[in-house]
From TrEMBL:
Key words of the record: Coiled coil
Protein's name in the database: Phage minor structural protein GP20
Biased composition (Polar residues): 133-143
Coiled coil: 35-62
Native source organism of the sequence: Carnobacterium viridans
Region (Disordered): 124-155
Database matches in InterPro entries: SCAF
């Protein structure tokens, strides 16, 4: 209830003042006795909520950053796993290890299929050279061995 409402009803100013005074007494009587205590407790709780919201925001930021770092690390691990798988499959397919990075696919089956297809183009790798200590049918090989084993005085 307010003064404008009472004035619109056509009441006199003195009557309005008396009604408003009586209404104020009624409101004060309905007001709890510990109203000021409740008001200060409310303000304290609002401050605590603000502080906790700040802490929660900081924690969420830290969690988001850690989640991002975890995602990056999981991507790196996946790349390493795929690279290891490509190297193993290239070795099994008889491809040079330098070409393992050229294999495509994400699953083992896809990489194996690509390695087989690639191996058909590349051909079989040449066998590794044997050590020079291997016996040959050459007539000069004993002289070559003697020269290789010869130590010069300066050495």
């Amino acid at each position: 209830m307010d003064r404008k409402f009472l004035e619109s009803l056509g009441l006199e100013k003195e009557a309005i003042d008396k009604v408003m005074a009586e209404h104020g007494k009624t409101i004060q009587a309905a007001k709890p006795t510990d109203y000021d205590d409740l008001k200060s407790a409310k303000e304290t709780l609002e401050k605590q909520i603000e502080e906790l919201n700040g802490t929660l925001t900081a924690t969420n930021d830290k969690y988001t950053q850690q989640e991002s770092t975890l995602g990056d690390l999981q991507k790196q691990v996946k790349c390493y796993e795929v690279d290891t798988l490509k190297t193993r499959i290239a070795s099994q397919a008889g491809l040079p290890l330098d070409l393992a990075g050229r294999l495509s696919g994400e699953t083992e089956e896809e990489i194996k299929a690509d390695a087989e297809k690639f191996a058909s183009f590349v051909g079989k790798p040449a066998p590794l050279p044997l050590k020079p200590t291997e016996q040959t049918n050459d007539k000069t090989s004993p002289y070559k061995n003697m020269l290789e084993n010869l130590k010069l005085e300066g050495e």
